Structure formats: C-alpha cells, structure tokens
Amino acid sequence: MSNLEADPGEILCGPGGGGDGEVLEGRAVPLGGPRAMRVTRTLPHVRRRMIGAWCFVDAYGPEQAEMRVAPHPHTGLQTVSWLVAGEVLHRDSLGSLQVIRPGSLNLMTAGRGISHSEESRLGLLHGVQLWVALPEEHRQTEPAFEHHATLPVLSGPGFTATVFLGALCGVRSPATAFSPLVGAEVVVEGEARLPLDPAHEHGLLLLGGEVAPLRPGPLFYLPPGREETRLSGSGRVLLVGGEPFAEEIVMWWNFVGRDHDEIAAFRKEWMEGDGFGVVRGYDGAPLPAPALPGTRLKPRGRLR
Ligand code: MN
Q1: Backbone angles phi, psi at 269, to 5 degrees
Q2: Ligand 1 centroid from CA 129, angstroms
Q3: Residues whose beta carbons lie less than 5 angstroms from ion ligand 1
Q4: Domain ranges in the chain?
Q5: Ligand 1 centroid vs 199 CA: distance in angstroms?
Q6: 118 alpha carbon to ligand 1 midpoint, in Å?
Q7: CA 8 – ligand 1 centroid, Å
Q8: How far is the CA of 11 from the centre of ligand 1 (A)?
C-alpha cells in the first residue's frame, strides 16, 4: 500500500489514554479512488513513531471496497500484507505477480529500491498493511518479494497465533527478517495468556470480535519487560513487536532513509529516473510523488 497523504510531512493525531500500557489512537487517512477504503493509521503516532522496527500500521475494513494502489516506489523497508478477508493482487518491478488471501503473507523487501502496485475487485476487504524499517546494515539490500502460504502456529492457553514474521516463543516464521521482531495474528478464545519476549516492546490491535482490554481502533502499546499479556474474550488480534529500534530514520511518503538529501534523491529518481524499475500489467499510471516539504526533513528516533 502507498502513503497517499497530500502532505506526508505532517503527522496529525489525537491524544491517547494512559492505563496499563499506552493507547495509540488511530487517525483516518485517505487512500484515493471513488470506492476507496477507509484506512486507520496507528503508526507512526505523534508520541511513538515505531514499535521495534515496525514503523507503519494501517488497518482497513471489514467493508465493501475496491483497492487500487497504482505503482509507487519504496526504499529502506519491508512491506507486510496480511488479510483477514478478501484478496489483493500484488505486482512489482521484479516481475512478481501474486494474489494474497487470508492466512498467507506477502512480504516485499524494498532494500535499495523497488516499485509495486496493489489492486482488488470490489468486494469485502479486511486487512492490515505494515512496514518494517531495515537497519543500517541491511537497508541497501537487493529488493526481493516473498509469498508464504504456510506459516507456523503457536498455541497456548486461550489462543492460537499464526507467526508471519520473526518469532514468538521459539516459533519462527520462514519469512526473511532483518531485526529481532515478531508479527503474528492471534485468535483469542477465552482467557488467553500470550507469551511475549521481555526484550521486545509490543503493540496489539483488535482486528475483530471482542477481546478485553482491547477496543476497536487504537493500537495498545506495551513497553519492554513483559513475559506475557492477558487477553480475554473471542476475537482476532494483531501482535507486532521487536527490540526498540536504536537508529534515527526519516520516513517520508513511501521512503525510509536517513537524511533529507537521501529522501530528495529517492524522490528525484522516482520522478525522473528508472532506478525503481517498471511495474508491468497495472491498468493505470504510476503515482507521482508529492512535493517535498518547505523545510528539511529531520531524522527522528522511535519516540518523537
Ligand atoms: Mn506500497
């Protein structure tokens, strides 16, 4: 998915609440098109830009929608596509052509640069689009695309977790990860005691059903130091977590970089060069990059 905000330099969102952990309220973002999906973005948040290496959490649906995200570039990150309902067709500049359905993973490693499109027919859509920032030593890696139809499952008291990226309690996804992290879909039935890695910070997002203490919309943040979290009810939860990301990054539009000049060069390459390749088969023009903000983009850490 693409960041289609008109002014992607601004991060606007409401205040959160306190309590046990921290509640990161989402904000609605436009995704373009006449039958566009309504997307709720909980990361980056004004108070918390990352959870581990996870730097972008968009949730959409369930609703009748048509996804049409024209070819656009990425750098310095991985895109993680996870569906609860519907199907989405991915195309990229490597020539990948892959339909994703619920329970399978599309993972695109942008590395030094890639472009892709995503589309669906009008129908029920429900899912999340996540980005993972690549650490310095891997961010220039060759672009790659992976599809995983079979993913490992961790079962425990009151829950079944499908681990799509990283590892949870020793259960490791076959997908390529570049930092210590976890991404999982957790189905809760009853009183769940979900094991966590105390070296990780975590975020929990309710995807469906009723699971206390979560509520629909916000991302619930849990700081490092926890060995488990208790959830109760019946529903579906997204778990993201990882070791706090130590580097400062610049996130602008669909790029992750390290300074303003690098982002400006990525933008120029997309608009004028051919370094992001060509997405073949998408019926429509590529997305133009928005104008850079009037002030220089500043590298930011995980908390500001
Ligand atoms: Mn994208």
Answers
A1: -65, -40
A2: 9
A3: 1-2
A4: 22-242
A5: 29
A6: 8
A7: 14
A8: 19
Reported as a single tens digit per residue, the pLDDT across 106-142 is 999 999 999 999 999 999 999 999 999 999 999 999 9
| Report field, pTM of the whole predicted structure over 0.90 | yes
E strand residue ranges, 103-152: 105-109, 114-119, 123-133, 144-148
Tell how far the Cα of 206 is from the centroid of ligand 1, in angstroms.
Answer: 23
Beta carbons within 8 Å of 170's beta carbon, 6+ residues apart: none
Per-residue pLDDT tens over the stretch 209-256: 999 999 999 999 999 999 999 999 999 999 999 999 999 999 999 999
Residue 25 main-chain phi, psi, to 5 deg: -70, 145
| Torsion over CA: 51, 249, 60, 104 (sign) | negative
Fold assignment, 22-242: Jelly Rolls (2.60.120)
Rounded to the nearest whole angstrom, what is the distance from the C-alpha of residue 176 to the centroid of ligand 1?
18
